[in-house]
């Protein structure tokens, strides 16, 4: 058995071992506003419920290991003492993952990841309309666990109002766990889908994805591509070049097929590439149609 003293290894390695051991972890998709009222949206997997009376949720933004900087979310709750915690299900998991990208302060992650801002009833931050369960909360205390990189900050949130989508409720007004279809965080790039098991999402932190707001209108409004599909397409920084698209069509003998196919059919083909995590090929087939 491998035995480790935390003080004997680098924080980054310890962090990796811990998040690979403690899971599946529920995800707090936290919506806040900064001092200027600009919305922010970010996911946190150091999260759980800690009390029912009073009803309290706790999540923990961790100081960046490399430079001890704090998350925008932490700065916002320190300033405004309000947050909406949105539950993440499989239907929005790709967009949630994209929201973990370190976009600059003031960037609206709702727009970047293609989710809808919905007014709250008791607090200022917006709810994620597509989330099946939303908690409007006031922040009652923030407990700092350290000053170095990797240190957590426990944000204690008292629930003021809870919103539950009708489609996840059964006839007795209880939440149907299969309909809820929650996802949870594991180690590395792995997630757990409550009713099916492990799956993987490449982490979008190594590059700044273009965002859903930068996708062509015909793609964003597709009747075939889902929010998760759009989230995958939006993870890349730049789209394939015209030469790359041309070579792809020639290699796969798709020129005539693309010309004769409807936009909906092309979107369906792109969706199949996305299911196989072939994001660049999905882009090539989409761009090929838009150039015809």
UniProtKB/TrEMBL annotation:
<keyword id="KW-0288">FMN</keyword>
<dbReference type="Pfam" id="PF01613">
    <property type="entry name" value="Flavin_Reduct"/>
</dbReference>
<protein>
    <submittedName>
        <fullName>Flavin reductase family protein</fullName>
    </submittedName>
</protein>
<comment type="similarity">
    <text>Belongs to the flavoredoxin family.</text>
</comment>
<feature type="domain" description="Flavin reductase like">
    <location>
        <begin position="22"/>
        <end position="185"/>
    </location>
</feature>
<keyword id="KW-0285">Flavoprotein</keyword>
<dbReference type="InterPro" id="IPR002563">
    <property type="entry name" value="Flavin_Rdtase-like_dom"/>
</dbReference>
């Amino acid at each position: 058995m491998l035995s480790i003293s935390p003080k004997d290894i680098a924080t980054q390695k310890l962090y990796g071992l811990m998040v690979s051991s403690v899971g599946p972890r529920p995800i707090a998709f936290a919506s806040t506003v900064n001092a200027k009222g600009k919305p922010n949206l970010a996911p946190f997997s150091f999260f759980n419920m800690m009390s029912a009376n009073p009803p309290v949720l706790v999540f923990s933004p961790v100081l960046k290991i490399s430079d001890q900087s704090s998350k925008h979310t932490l700065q916002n709750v320190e300033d405004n003492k309000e947050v909406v915690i949105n539950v993440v299900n499989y239907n929005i998991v790709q967009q949630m993952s994209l929201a973990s990208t370190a976009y600059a302060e003031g960037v609206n992650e709702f727009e970047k990841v293609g989710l809808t801002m919905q007014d709250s009833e008791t607090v200022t931050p917006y709810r994620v309309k597509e989330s099946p369960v939303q908690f409007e909360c006031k922040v009652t205390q923030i407990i700092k666990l350290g000053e170095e990189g990797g240190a957590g900050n426990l944000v204690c949130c008292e629930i003021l109002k809870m919103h539950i989508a009708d489609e996840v409720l059964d006839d007795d007004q209880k939440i149907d766990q299969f309909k809820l279809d929650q996802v949870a965080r594991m180690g590395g790039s792995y997630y757990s889908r409550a009713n099916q098991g492990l799956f993987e999402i490449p982490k979008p932190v190594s590059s700044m994805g273009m965002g859903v707001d930068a996708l062509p209108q015909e793609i964003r409004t597709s009747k075939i591509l889902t929010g998760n599909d759009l989230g995958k397409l939006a993870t890349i920084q730049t789209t394939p070049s015209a030469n790359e698209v041309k070579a792809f069509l020639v290699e796969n003998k798709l020129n005539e097929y693309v010309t004769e196919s409807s936009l909906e059919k092309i979107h369906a083909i792109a969706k199949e590439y996305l299911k196989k995590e072939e994001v660049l090929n999905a882009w090539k087939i989409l761009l090929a149609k838009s150039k015809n």
